[in-house]
């Protein structure tokens, strides 16, 4: 993840642009560690804000090998250092080698279980999973927010949005499915069909090209991290009708997200943005639907948390009939939807003027 430059740079730039939010503040980094080296001390984001905050707490789950990189006092097993008000502190090699050994307060534990001596002015976290919600730790961040964020505190990032768009999934189709049609003059389409069936069971993580998108992207979900609740994340259903702007075979829905920081900057994982480790996610349809420009198509996407209490989601995608009820407002080209949208836009403009 540290190697994911667009991700890490987005946090770095946003933190630098918001130094006033961190200056002399109590800051909590939930999930501060880096999984890759199992130094659950201070990851790439944490070390960057540590210099500005007066009390940066770096929290991550205890791992068996965490102690290896956590510096202990000569011959002892306890934490190093004791802050007069804030109590004992662990020093870690990451924090130390970046000059913040005495500043960062490392807490090993789940955010759900740890205790802190004070409330936080800012909560920083990089919690996003594939298509935002998959195996995401947002539920834990919500618990952390409710336990530790001061009433006028700030979430960092503060908004997250999930988008979806019908796609040809052309590159993916070529790599994973088409290759089975006539390799070496043999008809192996049965293997391709089986592969496509298995893809219905799980969303596919892949890089897509903007030219594979068949219509304008639609906003599926907008989360305001200050307020969102775990209950709201249990099941998300989105119905959309869109007008096709590019002809091609419709093979599935492409999903991606963006996160917005308090300074307005964004971490964008769209097909047009530099690739991140999240890439995009495809929900693959059972068969191809050839589409012409100006066709109106409808889809319904449901993301439902698995009943086992884990962090996984079940995704279902279905096609809607053009005559099914359209949401209001709807961005498609059907006359009725255009009219309603024009009326709503007019009312909004009048409100803004008034
Ligand atoms: C994406 S990684 C963090 C990356 C790191 N902040 C960086 O900048 O490189 C997410 C981290 O959250 C931690 N985590 C997941 N659930 C947690 C919880 N309930 N409490 C504390 N940490 C948690 C994981 O152990 C993992 O290290």
Automatic annotation (TrEMBL):
Keywords: Methyltransferase, S-adenosyl-L-methionine, Transferase
Annotated stretches, region: Disordered: 60-95
Record-annotated Protein arginine N-methyltransferase domain positions: 159-318
GO biological process entries: methylation
UniProt entry tagged with the keyword Transferase: yes
InterPro entries according to UniProt: Arg_MeTrfase, PRMT_dom, SAM-dependent_MTases_sf
Record-linked Pfam families: PRMT_C (PF22528)
GO MF annotation terms: histone methyltransferase activity; protein-arginine N-methyltransferase activity
The UniProt record lists the keyword Nucleotide-binding: no
Protein name from the UniProt record: Protein arginine N-methyltransferase domain-containing protein
The species this protein was found in: Amphibalanus amphitrite
